[in-house]
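Example (one chain per record):
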Amino acid sequence: MDDGWILVDNAHKREMAQRDMLSARYIGMDTEYDSFRYFREKLCLIQISTESRVYIFDPLLDVDLSFLGEVFANPATVKIIHACDNDVRLLGRDYGFRFANIFDTYRAASLLGFTPLSLKAIMEECLGVELTKTKKIQRSR
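Predicted structure:
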């Protein structure tokens, strides 16, 4: 827990994440789905950040994720997501989650005339932060 991120793999960590997220003014969220090996995309990872922590959820573990429905539907919390269409659609399909108060960085950058629109390019242009990620890691198990 000293690294600023927590793998939520038990009830205690889930309760801690729930308290933090429900009190947050904004959260960042991203999912990873495997669509390379499955006909129907399979949720493999949920990453949610608050001001203080990054929470990693492995949907393949036996951890109750239902509280995320309250987090995502809370209109008092801004959900910052890049290109959120698939995240919102697939979490709705798999868990019945509904979302309120989303800020989509992809759409915002598009409206402002940015090109290219990848998160990597936007981070470099707006924040001077370089993200490094290889396709080999993206498509790994």
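Caption: The chain has six helices and six strands.
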